[in-house]
Amino acid sequence: MADTIILPENQSSSRSSIIIPSEQTRPLSNGLWGVILLVVDTDNVVKVPKDARGGLYEIEKKVYERLGTHQRIASYLGEATVRVGPEWKPGLLCRYYPLRTLDVFFDNPASVEICKSRRQQLLWAAQILDGLSYIHSCNVIHGDVGIRNILVDQNLELKFSDFGGSSVDGAEMRVECAPQYHRAHSWRFPIAGIDDLGETWKMPTRMMDTFALGTVLYEIFTAAKLYKDEPYDIRRRRATKKEYPDLGVIPIVEVRYVISNCWSEQYSEVEEVVRDLQPIWAKGAYFGLTAANPACSTK
Fold this sequence. Notes:
Elements: E1 18-20, E2 25-30, E3 34-39, E4 44-49, H1 56-67, E5 76-84, E6 87-95, H2 102-107, H3 112-116, H4 118-137, E7 140-141, E8 150-152, E9 158-160, E10 167-168, H5 206-222, H6 232-240, H7 253-263, H8 270-276, H9 278-282
Parallel strand pairs: 1-5
Antiparallel strand pairs: 2-3, 3-4, 4-6, 5-6, 7-10, 8-9
Helix pairs in contact: 4-5, 4-8, 5-7
């Protein structure tokens, strides 16, 4: 498909923000943050916040600009101004990934065999580690790590996205991740009757992401979503009580060990996870992998 965006009359492509008329978009998804519009006849989407004054738009823009181009980060193309109803609104222009997010990919019956492939699971694990390590190296904490925020490209490679709730240079976060990816304590928005209201919210640390990494790895190696179809309050109670699933369903001992350590908050850096998975990368040929340590470099 073409990448050319049609500009309205009397508009120049030299503007700092690309102008996209309403007739060149169609709705793709609608969420709490805002809407995602597909720019027709292109390989692009534009994320339009419901309220740009909330700060999430500026945070996500800042993160994408800092992260730049990286094989594990969704491609960000710049700012756009898009017509939504009677208004012109700001948006973030990004590459469109037709396979959508990893959680959507899991739900596709045609993807079952791919998701159950041990080789694919190991490659995905390596890509997740690669991406999260890079994000942290840029002094960014994602804050909402989960398979709903990880995109799948046409080559089945993973890309991190959705940085509106991230922390940059230690700044406070404005969102809270789903319960299955959250530590049992330090909730940003505690709920009476479920959480310990006496807890003090702590400033973000990388351990928030490494904890969530454990759940992502569990979901990848079981090819299933943790606590799927359970209501939010039940998942929240499970998280607060540290009710984690049996890891015996995962046959690789190193993976079980790492997930357990993530959930018990033993890791503060992604590199520690990579270290503990070294025995797997050393057996790369057995799993049909081309690199001895794909976590460090997955092309």
